[in-house]
Amino acid sequence: MIIGVPKEIKNHEYRVGMVPASVRELVNHGHQVFVESDAGMGIGFTNEDYTLAGAEILATAAEVFATAEMIIKVKEPQAVERAMLREDQILFTYLHLAPDLPQTEDLIKSKAICIAYETVTDSRGGLPLLAPMSEVAGRMSIQAGAQALEKSNHGRGMLLGGVPGVEPAKVVVIGGGMVGRSAAQMAVGLGAEVVVLDRNIDVLRALDAQFGNKVKAIYSTADALEKHVLEADLVIGGVLIPGAAAPKLVTAEHIKAMKPGSAIVDVAIDQGGCIATSKATTHADPTFIVDDVVHYCVANMPGAVPRTSTFALNNATLPFIINLANKGYKKALLDDANFLKGLNVIKGQVTYKEVAEAFNMPYVDPRTAVENA
Ligand SMILES: NC(=O)C1=CN([C@@H]2O[C@H](COP(=O)(O)OP(=O)(O)OC[C@H]3O[C@@H](n4cnc5c(N)ncnc54)[C@H](O)[C@@H]3O)[C@@H](O)[C@H]2O)C=CC1
Ligand SMILES: CC(=O)C(=O)O
Ligand SMILES: [Mg+2]
């Protein structure tokens, strides 16, 4: 198969779809890989590193899109990239469609085969291609929150861990999955008071087993959520209903009633955010203030640590990329029900229920869609 890796173009996004070691694996399997010039420069990989791994370098994204049968990216395709997709081309990347009508419409129009990293599942009910970036973003959320609490950033002027004789900050994490657990780990490490809310009791049990009495693992009712959010110095939003727009659990009234100078980091912003006052921001301008609460809502947080993130992402995506290339998308998807969950749009049809529901569009069963493609 001919595989293309364009340079990422989202604001301050330096991750890349494939590192040279991944290219070498694909080439060893008999595939051809075309990489856009300087695609890996942001993490220290030169064009020569890629050619030594067996790739060919193309000068522009337009040439990569025109040449490749399968495009491997990191972030959802931006409008100019979507315009370059064509019928039957495979796109394998993060998509986050449910909160993004323009992208969904463009992918439908393209008639491409669009497989989202974030909805691929595993046999234990996990999200193996989202998990590594959630670990990064969860850990980063505490760094971002700590900065937001600094006075010069309009925060309350609090150190997360306090000092001897002074209380630590209260960190409230909504959602105890990959993001939530990683955030809790960092917040505990810094000495904050940590509460995690989730509505899955097994998740609460796992938190209890991991952190003991260093984390209060609380069942997430509207009542519990309101109590802890109003007491919080820092709120981390990490809920997910896979593939769906995030539920707005923290309301504008909650934000009004929070302490002046408190902060929120809405990691779930890539699915639209779980805080009513959130709107997506960029690494160039990551925060804004609503009712004296500092909001950090960067939708590509792992892009700030692209070296760590690219390796972590590639470790997870490589076996799936190899499968797609070796077997073709039909066999790769039909052989693996968990991989098939990644298919969101194919040849103009929406094959992910929550996306179809979000936009009142017809839903087509993915297996049927692939079999008929
Ligand atoms: N902004 C960014 O750069 C990044 C954002 N993310 C996003 O972070 C979000 C969380 O991802 P993961 O932790 O991997 O998901 P996950 O599936 O591991 O965890 C989500 C948790 O939310 C819980 N939950 C669902 N509804 C809830 C409710 N009403 N109250 C409390 N808990 C509830 C679930 O039980 C689950 O434990 C996703 O939207 C993901 O796309 C992930 C990586 C980077
Ligand atoms: C998951 C996601 O949105 C990211 O890694 O940027
Ligand atoms: Mg207030």
Characterization of the model:
About 35% of the residues lie in helices and about 15% in strands. It has helices spanning about 20-30, 45-50, 60-65, 80, 100-110, 130-150, 180-190, 200-210, 220-230, 250-255, 305-335, 335-340, 355-360, 365-370, and strands spanning about 1-5, 30-35, 55-60, 70, 90-95, 115, 170-175, 195-200, 215-220, 235, 265, 285-290, 295, 345, 350. The strands form two sheets. The chain has an eight-stranded mixed sheet, with helices on both faces. A seven-stranded mixed sheet has the order 9-8-7-10-11-13-12, sandwiched between helices. The two termini are about 20 Å apart. The structure holds 1,4-dihydronicotinamide adenine dinucleotide (NAI), pyruvic acid (PYR) and magnesium ion (MG). The site of pyruvic acid (PYR) has 8 residues, from loops.
Protein topology:
Blueprint: E1 2-5, H1 20-28, E2 32-36, H2 47-52, E3 56-58, H3 61-67, E4 70-72, H4 79-82, E5 90-93, H5 101-110, E6 113-116, H6 131-148, E7 170-174, H7 178-189, E8 193-198, H8 201-211, E9 215-219, H9 222-231, E10 234-237, H10 252-257, E11 263-266, E12 287-290, E13 293-296, H11 306-334, H12 337-340, E14 343-346, E15 349-350, H13 353-358, H14 366-372
Parallel strand pairs: 1-2, 1-4, 2-3, 4-5, 5-6, 7-8, 7-10, 8-9, 10-11, 11-13
Antiparallel strand pairs: 6-14, 12-13, 14-15
Helix pairs in contact: 6-7
Bound molecules: 1,4-dihydronicotinamide adenine dinucleotide, pyruvic acid and magnesium ion.
1,4-dihydronicotinamide adenine dinucleotide binds next to helix 6, helix 7 and strand 8.
